[in-house]
Amino acid sequence: MLLDSLYTNGSFYTQQGRRPRAHSVGVHGGRIVSLDDELPASLFRDVFDLGGAAVVPGFNDAHCHLSYVGQALVQADLRPAACGTMDELLAAVDRACLAAPEGAWVQGAGYDQNYLGNQHPTAEQLDAVSHGHPVWLMHNSRHMGVANTAAFDRAGYPGRRNVTAPDGGAAPADTDGRAFGLLQETARALVMDAIPGPGVEDVAEMVGAGSAALLELGVTSITEPGLGAPQHIGHSLSDIAGYQLARDAGKLGVRATVMPYLTTLHGLGDADVEGSSGTPPVARMGLDLGMRSGFGDEWLRLGPAKILSDGSLIGRSAFMCCDYQHEAGGPEGNRGLLQFPAQELRRRVIGAHRAGWQVATHAIGDAALDVVLDIFEEAQKLYPRQDARHRIEHVNVAGDDQIKRLASLGLIPVPQGRFINELGDGAARALGPERTRLSYRVKSLLDAGIEIPASTDAPVVSGDPLLNIHDLVNRRTSSGADFGPEERISVAQAVRAYTVGSAHAVHEDHYKGSLAPGMLADFVALTEDIYEVPADTLRDVRVAATVVGGRLVHGSLKG
């Protein structure tokens, strides 16, 4: 019997310290069985010539909304690259409304007010181009959005009146009490709850479309942060069923680790016991039948439970220790907000920790970071666990002492390098020059001894790993401004984060993230060697071929 495939004549960067380079990789049953000449070519059924290409393990996006990547492909594209002005955005909405069936909801995603004269679209502006359709536009942060009057009508708020935001949200209104259209944080649900939710088949289609798009970029694994709680994040209560259907139908092309949103967890009904410090017990929080992080297999697996503690930096809703930089016409004294009262956040996070979950808490502002650090420290004191690897998503603003504390508590920060380019100018305006140096820190995290993952938060920004690596290495905004140049890292550090680091962040580094016998045969051939090209040309490197489980799924190779 012949083994499956041999990929040879490549320059493999294995991410293995003992054997950092190889020229051939042998594959059987989806896993690596040999490096270099350990097994002769005659033992393999198929032999592929990489033509000397540089090869790295498959890129693993540790924080990627795969289903939303797919959904964005069928919505109006409002990203700054597509709509650079308010007039262009309104024209895109106009076209989408003209093309939509009568009475149907029209949705768009990706707008950023920082590229629109620091103005969000208003309901009245959308009314003028909606042709009678209810319209909902999602901000690129996905922490806010704008609805037109017809959308408010459908949601039970005729004329945009009597709109009351829930705790953790805001719905700005004029002096007559009419909502402007902008809904922030938890207030998004006021309109989003009225939009017909996608079914299991719809989610499966989104997952399939997102998979196909990411495979072209060399992404072979993702972690989707937050599913199953459409009032917070996710499409429906059956999101994971959509993932399962996508897998059954052969549409799940990338390996997916999925995070149920923490509000989908509930009390498990077991007897409480007192914590080790003598404090009142915190009830265990879990899914039905006690399932928790780690359930599943190498293609579809439950990861951490995800929860938001605060909002968006460029949207100025992230919870900060100091006021945002004031802008003319904007509110004064704004420090953002927590999405949950601190005690409620504590109850949920510690309950999930106690039940054995890995927990991933979104914290962008430095004040939110302090709240989350306190909760994780208390959780470990009350209910000690070995190697929990709890995560803090984003950590967009952090001081030196907070980074030291992250390291000492064994927490994993999950940064996004691409934010520097696409969102950096807006972040700098929000923070001011003194506090900008505390933003999007990466080298400081590495210097503290933390194994960091790499991620994009796509579709908030581009999901392209090579653009992300470019920005981690160069740290320049879209306007060309340097952004914390002292936080630049090397290509080798960025690639390790995208492979070993991302696998480590979800307890998958024993079978994913490096190229060695026994590991998954997921790797990417590049058009140029990113370890050798000038730093300012990293963005020009492309993916020539993507291999998942030893099978070529994108590009072409000589066979």
TrEMBL record:
Boundaries of every Amidohydrolase domain copy: 46-554
Superkingdom of this protein's organism: Bacteria
Signal peptide: none
Gene3D superfamilies: 3.10.310.70, Metal-dependent hydrolases, Urease, subunit C, domain 1
Entries under Pfam families matching the protein: Amidohydro_3
Name the UniProt record assigns to this protein: Amidohydrolase YtcJ
Organism lineage: Bacteria, Bacillati, Actinomycetota, Actinomycetes, Micrococcales
